[in-house]
Amino acid sequence: MRRSFLSAIALTGLSVTGAAASKTPRKVDKRLIGTWKSDKERTVARWQYNKPLDNAQREKFESIFGKLVWRITETYYYGIFEDQKFSDTYTVLASDENSVCVSHHNDGKPELNQYFFEEGYMYILSGYNVEFFKRVEA
After folding, report:
1. Under 8 Å CB-to-CB from 79, ≥6 apart: which residues?
2. Max Cα-Cα span within the chain
3. pLDDT tens digits, 57-70
4. How far is residue 43's CA from residue 90's CA, in Å, rounded to a whole number?
5. Domain limits of the chain?
6. What CATH number should be reported for the domain whose range is 24-136?
């Protein structure tokens, strides 16, 4: 119980003394910054389906890829998917040679995501699948 409480405090950015984490320098990972677009071809080529789909079902599902665009600054992310636009702040929690872990809100709920970088691509895991993004000019 105590460990869960301390973990919750750490994830919200508060110290045990109640001081706000804003006094520490904000972490920034320059690999995130820029404009990224979903790469339909690379994603679909590696997608593993857990059940067989006929051609119409597969085409309909695969049509969602290649539309999502992220513009990421040091403090905000901005997304566009078809006619939907969304944005919010995010916080870099940790990073290593291959990835960055960020905290942000999704429909008002806190969420953690890990973004991986490989050969000029950024990708996210979705179960046992991967959605790739390529950097584009804004």
Report:
1. 68, 69, 70, 71, 85, 86, 87
2. 58
3. 999 999 999 999 99
4. 25
5. 24-136
6. 2.40.128
